[in-house]
Amino acid sequence: MDRKLRADDGAGGEPPQGATALTDAEEYAAAVLGLVRRIPPARAMTYGLIAEIVAEDLGRGGPRQVGNVMAGSGDRYQHLVPEDAVVVGPAQDSFDVPWWRVVNAAGSPPAQHLTAALDALRAEGCPLTRDGRRVDLKRAVWFPDGPDPAR
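RE: above sequence
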């Protein structure tokens, strides 16, 4: 199994044999996608929360960068998603990354995918606002390795 490294890791600037060097953008994308893949069904995270958590380790990035990664997760960064990736939830047969579980600070999924995202969130039992157009973040937000808020 190949080990992935940052482009500047390793002695002499060269990655060890069998390792794939990651650019800074790929390293950031891998961290974002790895976190998003951990969001459980019926839960959600905001772009900003993901950016904050990734920045704790990498010291860079923000909500817009998370959005760029998510926009490219189906093609540009697909090589960073493990081949055996499995998403638990109703859309598991079609996607390696549960993009519908990532919303903006108001709880809204991406406007261009609003219907598909809300359908997937409803199917998972994710708490939505009364009008059904946004995630109820008070009840649905997920924090990795932390206590679950009351649902």
